[in-house]
Task: structure prediction
Amino acid sequence: MVDATLPAADAETPKRPVFTRKTLEAVMPWAVVFTLFAVWELSVVIFDIPPFILPAPHVIFGAIWEWRVPILDNALQTLFTTAVGFALAIVFGLFTGVLIGSSSLIYNGFYPVLIGFNSIPKVAVVPILVIWFGIGTVPAIITAFLISFFPILVNVATGIATVEPDLKDVLRALGASRRDIILKVGIPRSLPYFFASLKIAITVAFVGSIIAETVAANKGIGHLMIVASSRFEVPLVFAGLIITAVMGVMMYAVAISIEKRMTHWATRSMDGPTTAT
Amino acid sequence: MATVGTYDAAQFVDLSDITLRYGGEATGTVALKGTSLTVAEGDFVAVVGPSGCGKSTLMKVVSGLWPVNGGAVTVAGERVKGPLSIVGMAFQSATLLPWRNTLANVMLPLEITKPHRGRLRANYDEYATKARDLLKLVGLEGFEEKYPWQLSGGMQQRVSLCRALIHDPDLLILDEPFGALDMFTREELWDVMQELWTEKRPTVILVTHDLREAAYLSNRVYVMSARPGRIIHSREVTAPRPRTLSATFTPEFAELTQDLRDNIQNARIAA
Result:
């Protein structure tokens, strides 16, 4: 940086590189994505892979453009089921996380059950959901919910259960009730864990709704991919995958921006010691 | 002082024949056995002893956080059955809340203790002024809006002391509050502590393994035996106040710390 009060020094400043570290950091993800697609494209050409095995990226993007209306329609459906399932997961995960984290008795009682439940492949649950709710939006929402509440719950519970014993003693010695401790310390303390878990939960929520859509739905990206694959429209199947990935990255970015806003104190080392004055 | 009932001021804190076991009633480790201790109101006592002797356990008992297995704990004329809200505590780690600034950290006890919690919202300015005054007293004027990570270890410990005192506790329990600090900061905080005590006059029980610290700050030093811990020696500190650091290099002071050291040595050999 050139100090504005010392213009004389300007002439002597060494030539700065064309890219500063910051722009480089911003450009890198795009560069990686571009390189990935370039390698893909080249491999397809060099090894002469037929499009019904692995279509080249330009074919896939062509398919995205060609099928843009149904893709948008189905993507919005998937986004909707994922968002609803995710929202339910946040509410349920926060609530049970606080409950489980605040009592070692509940923690010990419920944790094994939750682990067992989480070990069940969610794809196996979808047929049951179809029996209960029929084919359509509801099984996708529930699958997205089932797959994404667990990381939220575990993280919130951990944040609350790991309040420093000394701090707990300070508060208890003041006559603080269990509720006081959870409200004043437990919940604020678990927020960084909570937001960290949202990043994981949102991506797996997509997995959940797409699994459900591939098994039992008449709409959504998963459904689109199944239909496309049965009609041997391989580029369209890949188009579905790419759209899913893009939606996942977008939601992840949203989760990160909320996290940064809410828990700046937990990531303070990134901003240096003199911020927030 | 907001205390109910009458009691003997000479026995503000009275522990008689305390037994405390970790774990099971019969099989658990005996941490305290036959421990007795009295502290007069407004007095400053220190408890020293070999490590693992149950000093910290004793503090948990006095504050009512841990129930005893035998004997009686009386504070301000009342049998202690649960946590006492007239207690302020500070530990070796400052345990400040990282999402609160200095002022909000100091004011935390006001959101919990009665009658302050009901009055805080309506009288916020009055309480905030009090917190600021306290911070000024420990030399942290101008740091009210800073967050814990922006403060040095010594500053954090000062904030912790303010937090322990903001609700005017009758009893202040300090469990090695300066233990994690470097020597210069520690000696600086001794003076801060001395000033706080002179100003506010709470009853203070200080647990420490630093004999100079114990002798410098307190009116009486108790020496605990190795586990199961009990009081085996007590020594009055008669040096006039306010004490200065140079006074810690006088022969009387050296004799005092030497005596304490010998007693701790004996306690360790006996164990």
In short: The longest helix of chain A spans residues 178-215.
